[in-house]
Amino acid sequence: MIITIGRQLGSGGRDIGKKLSEAMNIAYYDRELIEITAKESGLNRKLFEEADERARTGFSAGILGMRVPFLSEGGIACGGLSNEMLFQIQSDVIRSLADKQPCVFIGRCADYILRDRKDCFSVFICANEEDRIRRIISYGDNSIPVEKARDLMERGDRRRAAFYNYYSNKTWGEASSYHVCINSSVFGVDGTVSLLKEMMGKVSFYSE
Amino acid sequence: MIITIGRQLGSGGRDIGKKLSEAMNIAYYDRELIEITAKESGLNRKLFEEADERARTGFSAGILGMRVPFLSEGGIACGGLSNEMLFQIQSDVIRSLADKQPCVFIGRCADYILRDRKDCFSVFICANEEDRIRRIISYGDNSIPVEKARDLMERGDRRRAAFYNYYSNKTWGEASSYHVCINSSVFGVDGTVSLLKEMMGKVSFYSE
After folding, report:
1. Does B31 touch chain A (CB under 8 A)?
2. What kind of fold does domain A2-197 have according to CATH?
3. Once rounded to an integer, what is the mean pLDDT over residues A69-74?
């Protein structure tokens, strides 16, 4: 069983994925993918780090006040490799890791990349705004004001949606793009983990 | 516990809601609301039936080739009562039913109408396209072609989205508008019912 987790910034989706992988004793891939992709491709790690940064939340950049360029469509990434090419290299790594063992992937359109697998279960985690803002503030060592956190939250969503909608044929955050979506404010991080673990045992991809 | 169920046309959401209400031995309100609203308001049942038809899937009308007007914004419904007024009357009935006993509401923006209740759990049901089309064809006594079913499916989604997005402050079918979204193709109708029943026992509306 392969589990992919898409998530709103500040929803706890990453913690949920990590804890779920521990509870199920399976591998977990989030930023680990950068290291592996660099190694597999023989290309400089920095290339993938920078592409990831461009595609990611813009969170740390946002805090530091850096300008994070919008994911350029077909634009050339440093090193002469386009974003698309780096995405394809990473996609191959995701497919090959999924072939090897059960695991959890965080983000990176893994649900779309693995869409042809029959054993891939896709999850989306959202949360109430007040919980997301509180979590984002805690990521920033509790030193950013609420309004800044709200801004990061909104830009994080836009960035993730832009990345997902560009590389997949689905819409980020839409219920019908995933198998299950859970609001983590309703069940808590641990409650959501145990719910998902139970669900895994019941997936039948049953068509009546 | 109040459960509200939004759903894509052909997702089996209505069956799931009905079976869930039976499994939990609680009341179930779908079109029953029309009768109750007419009775409570003292207004003609036909008024609510027609408003419901305008807001609903357009399914039967679609099959019969009738023209179903788009939900008019602020338009006047027959009898001189606006759609908004009929919606408000129905909303009052939904709130008063929810006050009386645990129950399941299908559609009608019940999740938005009951948003201030702490015990309201909102669900959205979607399904894979092939399952939805098969189900829509079966609603039409297996006498409609696939392309017609696909057209009804797409128009049904647009109509439900228009109704929900107009009357609520949320977006229909978006994960973050609901507490849990489930693709019924993954667990089947009965599997989804038992999953939801289990979830009910775990809702904590927990904020970490």
Report:
1. no
2. Rossmann fold (3.40.50)
3. 41
Q: What is the pLDDT of residue A51?
A: 79
Return all residues near B176 (Cβ < 8 A) that are at least 6 apart. Answer: A8, A126, A173, A183, B170
Rounded CA-CA distance B175/A173 in Å is 6
d(CA A148, CA A160): 18
A180-183, strands of its sheet edge to edge: A27-29, A103-106, A2-7, A120-126, A180-183, B180-183, B120-126, B2-7, B103-106, B27-29
Give the angle subtended at the CA of A10 by the CAs of B113 and A177, to the nearest 5°: 65
For chain B, report the end-to-end CA distance as a whole number of angstroms: 22
From first to last of its 208 residues, what are the pLDDT tens digits of chain B? 999 999 999 999 999 999 999 999 999 999 889 889 888 888 888 888 887 777 664 433 333 333 334 344 444 444 567 788 888 999 999 999 999 999 999 999 999 999 999 899 999 999 999 999 999 999 877 789 999 999 999 999 999 999 999 999 999 999 999 999 999 999 999 999 999 999 988 887 654 4
Q: Do residues A131 and A185 touch, judged by C-beta distance below 8 A?
A: yes
**Can you list the alpha helix ranges (DSSP code H) found in B42-180?**
45-55, 59-64, 83-100, 110-113, 129-139, 146-167
CA B203/CA A191 separation, integer angstroms: 9
In a mutagenesis test of the B interface, which of A174, A186, A190, A195 is the best target, namely the one with the most B β-carbons within 10 Å? A186
Return the CATH fold of B2-200. Rossmann fold (3.40.50)
Inter-chain touch A199–B195, beta carbons under 8 Å: yes
Q: Phi and psi for B2 in degrees, rounded to 5?
A: -105, 135
Express each pLDDT in A101-143 by its tens digit.
999 999 999 999 999 998 999 999 999 999 999 999 998 777 8
Chain B positions touching A205 (Cβ under 8 A) are 185-186
For residue B102 the two structure tokens come to: 């645990």
Are A197 and A187 in contact by the 8 Å Cβ rule? The answer is: no
Query: pLDDT exceeding 90 applies to what percent of chain A?
Result: 63
Q: Which of A128, A191, A202 sits opposite B195 (nearest CB)?
A: A202
